[in-house]
Design a protein that fits this description.
single chain; alpha/beta; Four Helix Bundle (Hemerythrin (Met), subunit A); Rossmann fold; 2 domains; 7-stranded mixed beta sheet; 17 strands; disordered N terminus
Length: 464
């Protein structure tokens, strides 16, 4: 593992031809305030609601308890209940007071909070945390070589970061979107209702366009809209308070959903009697994609703690290397031995190993039952279908109900990423071809899925 002497920060140039006004004018985070994140024992910033802090502290303890009971994974989320509350929500945790650094991105300046050190297998850093009226987001592009964070002070900052690909996984993105809208409501508290409403609607659109294939973002935006559309005479501080409370509720609901999904996965996996349970993981599947609580990794740790023998394979996950960079790192933190394979080697693996299950996490569940899942998922599903029935593994897809569209929904949107991401993750050199086509997700047909798991239960395919 690379160990740079100083943490790195990366912010890529914004996409050219940006048309959205919120993303164009407000999306680049601006430097404000002293640029420091308070450490242990510091006084709560002025204006921070102590009751809100109490909510987060209690929820953090409960989240650890739930994960510990459901999946034996308190250690993965953090080393203690207090660390969970601090790492996830920025409460009473011990953070370095490294000064905020500023990195240029085109004509924009984005503040980046340096982590104390590069990553280690025992390190823990939540995907996001709250620091007063700021949202501190882990820049996952640097993992596992560096722990770097960026600061969002308004929803358009969050939209900008989502466009850059700092974070991935619809469950996480929904939480970031919700808190981004809450920050905008707080920032615009002194504006007229019309001006505040206009800004919130612009921000909603920017968030939706940032990651169109993540249905949970739409779900979160709709929930936030219901509490931010206020009567014309509604005081701004009331709107801001309702928005923050709803964002808290969204985070809590999604965390509870992930814990429930983890329990269902643990009881749904096959139970071979004469050999280890063999599982292939494709795509990011831990807390880095779930935001507060992961689903797949806690389920596997529960089985391990129950005495089940496991054999795990992880695809590298091109072009973003999510498996090699993120899933493998989280598995090491969970003390779950695994082997990394090229995603082009899945057919080779299935021909030689008795794989019992392939686990995917969905970004979108269509009304038809089709799902949007990490790039490469459709190819894996087709490989499984080509095997004899007695040989092919179960294809198990999980996602919270927030990823499910309602009746009569639209087709799963195409989500194409900027071509320069291809080079950035694979070779760190300019592309030599004429261009790059980089889809973010695949659509897996419902007929190819053996088991679809949400917090409401497990739905089995009729062909099984």
């Amino acid at each position: 593992m690379a160990t740079p002497s100083t943490p790195s920060s990366r912010t890529d140039p914004p996409p050219r031809g940006e048309e959205d006004a919120a993303a164009r004018t407000d999306a680049a985070p601006r430097a404000a305030g002293g640029g420091r994140i308070a450490g242990r024992g510091s006084v709560a910033p002025e204006g921070v609601d102590p009751g809100r802090r109490a909510f987060f502290r209690e929820f953090g303890k409960q989240a650890v308890s739930v994960v510990g009971q459901v999946a034996g994974m308190a250690d993965v989320v953090s080393r203690s209940a207090s660390a969970m509350a601090g790492g996830v929500f920025g409460l009473d945790d011990e953070r370095t007071e490294a000064g905020t650094r500023f990195i240029r991105s085109g004509q924009r300046t984005a503040p980046a909070v340096s982590a104390a050190a590069p990553t280690a297998d025992g390190a823990f850093r939540s995907a996001y945390r709250l620091a007063g009226d700021e949202l501190v987001v882990l820049d996952q592009r640097g993992l596992p070589d560096a722990l770097d964070e960026v600061v969002a002070r308004r929803g358009s900052d969050v939209a900008y970061y989502l466009r850059l690909g700092l974070a991935r996984g619809g469950t996480l993105l929904a939480q970031l979107a919700a808190y981004g809208l809450a920050l905008t409501a707080t920032e615009r508290v002194s504006f007229s209702p019309a001006e505040r409403g206009h800004e919130l609607r612009r921000t909603e659109q920017a968030l939706l366009e940032a990651r169109p294939s993540a249905h949970a973002v739409r779900w979160a935006v709709q929930r936030m809209r219901e509490v931010t559309i206020a009567p014309a005479d509604a005081p701004g501080d009331d709107v801001a308070a309702r928005a923050r409370a709803e964002a808290d509720a969204i985070a809590a609901d999604l965390g509870a959903a992930q814990a429930t999904i983890a329990a269902t996965i643990a009881t749904s996996l096959p139970q071979p009697s004469d050999r280890p349970l063999t599982v292939l993981l494709h795509g990011s599947c831990g807390a880095l994609a779930g935001g507060l609580v992961g689903a797949v990794i806690p389920a596997l740790a529960q089985l391990r703690d129950d005495g089940r023998a496991l054999r795990l394979f992880v695809t590298e996950g091109r072009p973003f290397m999510d498996g090699a960079r993120l899933t493998a790192w989280e598995l090491r933190q969970a003390d779950l031995p695994h082997q990394l394979i090229p995603d082009a080697a899945v057919a080779w693996l299935l021909a030689r190993e008795p794989v019992d299950a392939v686990l995917l996490q969905a970004e979108w569940i269509a009304a038809s039952g089709d799902v949007a899942a990490p790039l490469g998922s459709r190819g894996i599903a087709q490989l499984i279908a080509s095997l004899a029935v007695e040989e092919h593994p179960q294809l198990i897809v999980s996602a919270p109900e927030a990823a499910r569209e309602g009746d009569g929904g639209v087709a799963i949107p195409e989500d194409l990423r900027p071509g320069d991401e291809f080079a950035a993750y694979l070779a760190h050199v300019p592309l030599r071809a004429g261009g790059a086509l980089v889809p973010a997700t695949d659509v897996v047909p419902a007929a190819a899925i053996d088991l679809l798991i949400t917090e409401t239960g497990a739905q089995r395919s009729s062909r099984r």
